[in-house]
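Design a sequence for this backbone.
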């Protein structure tokens, strides 16, 4: 039977922390992950893309007039972005299926709550530098572990007053209403968001921005491509004269009306459900072309042996009888790693996930967390300098920690489909990007 699953809303929960990985326990009882006694068969409707929504919000806040954002994601990360921009004087009105964003002159003082969201931690400081007054940046306890020092150093180079010696949350930015801009060199190997942050605001700087990356390869290149494409839609050209070099001339950012695509990374656990249960899952409104990293799920799940087809805007994955082991370079699409690792733990042969050393600086140290929790379930996992080696073993039930990381919670839910008695601590962390994950997942196997 085919069911249509949709998202609505919920709230995040408080949790306690572990000094090494972050959040490990919740005041709520662990959530019993649904076990699939039969192959799943469902049609899934996804919420909007977080990456597109938050970029659209920032660009709209810096535009020359009102913009309309249709079908935005309204989850914890985007709600925090809305609150951050409103605190800086931007008027944001919510309608039934859209947001209207009206710039009205950026000003402070303000306090920005970043939560655990990298897009707020990295995208808002350059915006706050264009406001008058001091903006304080705070966040969840483990957000202080997320890399930010290179971006703050680059802002100082561009003429922004940032709290002296600040290298992590909390910190403050002293805005004067304008930024000199110009040339800056930074190491963006820890996060592509360093580059996107400066490109999004760069055309509003007096001298624009001329940015050079020096270091190991920048991860998540598709997200930079998304930033460049969304800037182009607003009349801002990003010049690429050499590899790892981006330049934006000073100029206006045009107001637009934008349709937000479904969040393809959020599709990962649902499509993986088809693979691990030998079932079938269809995701509706799948774009023919997109800059979202999640579009590579088709190739990734195909490498596990799944049958993947796209027709009339729907992507369908049908699971194999036996899951193959894989050797994958996920350097550009690291956010998919937790769910990919969950599928690999159920394969019939070892898997190697490469190019993901930068995941140590995500919501938690994802490599340590995945090695710890997959091992807790019985898998044999080796953490390597740039990734993970996963040797499948017979898995068993356990209480799985999520460390406040929505992707780890989704990965645990995938494993729960195939392994009885999996319980997930703080499953509500999924509200970071999927407001109604629990009910949608429960309906998937109902």
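Sequence:
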């Amino acid at each position: 039977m085919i069911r249509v699953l949709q998202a609505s809303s919920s709230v995040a929960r408080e949790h306690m922390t572990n000094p090494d990985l972050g959040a490990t326990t919740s005041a709520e009882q662990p959530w019993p992950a649904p076990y699939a006694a039969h192959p799943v068969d469902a049609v899934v409707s996804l919420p909007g893309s977080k990456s597109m929504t938050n970029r659209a919000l920032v660009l709209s806040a810096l535009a020359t007039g009102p913009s309309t954002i249709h079908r935005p994601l309204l989850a914890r990360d985007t709600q925090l972005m809305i609150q951050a921009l409103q605190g800086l004087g931007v008027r944001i009105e919510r309608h039934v299926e859209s947001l209207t964003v009206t710039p009205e002159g950026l000003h402070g003082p303000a306090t920005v709550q970043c939560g655990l969201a990298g897009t707020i931690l990295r995208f808002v400081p350059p915006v706050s530098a264009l406001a008058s007054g001091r903006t304080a940046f705070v966040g969840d306890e483990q957000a202080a572990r997320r890399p930010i020092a290179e971006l703050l150093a680059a802002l100082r180079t561009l003429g922004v007053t940032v709290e002296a010696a600040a290298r992590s949350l909390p910190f403050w930015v002293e805005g004067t209403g304008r930024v000199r801009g110009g040339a800056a060199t930074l190491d963006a190997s820890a996060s592509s968001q360093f580059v996107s942050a400066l490109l999004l605001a760069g055309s509003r700087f007096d001298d624009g921005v001329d940015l050079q990356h020096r270091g190991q390869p920048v991860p998540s290149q598709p997200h930079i491509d998304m930033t460049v494409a969304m800037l182009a839609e607003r009349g801002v050209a990003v010049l690429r004269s050499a590899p790892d070099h981006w330049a934006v001339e000073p100029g206006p950012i045009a107001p637009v009306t934008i349709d937000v695509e479904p969040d393809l990374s959020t599709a990962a656990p649902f499509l993986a459900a088809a693979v691990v249960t030998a079932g079938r899952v269809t995701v509706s409104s799948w774009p023919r072309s997109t800059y979202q990293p999640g579009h590579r799920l088709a190739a990734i799940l195909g490498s596990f042996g799944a049958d993947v087809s796209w027709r009339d805007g729907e992507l369908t994955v049908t699971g194999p009888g036996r899951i193959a082991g894989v050797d994958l370079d996920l350097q550009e699409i690291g956010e998919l790693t937790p769910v990919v690792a969950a599928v690999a733990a159920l394969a019939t042969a070892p898997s190697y996930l490469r190019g993901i050393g930068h995941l140590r600086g995500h919501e938690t140290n994802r490599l340590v967390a995945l090695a710890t929790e997959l091992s807790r379930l019985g898998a044999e996992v080796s953490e390597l300098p740039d990734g993970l080696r996963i040797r499948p073993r017979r898995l068993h039930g356990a209480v799985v920690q999520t460390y406040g990381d929505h992707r780890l919670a989704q990965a645990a839910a995938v494993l729960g489909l195939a392994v009885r008695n999996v319980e997930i601590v703080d499953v509500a962390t999924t509200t970071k990007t999927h407001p109604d994950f629990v009910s949608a997942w429960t309906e998937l196997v109902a």
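Residues 406-418 form the longest helix (13 residues).
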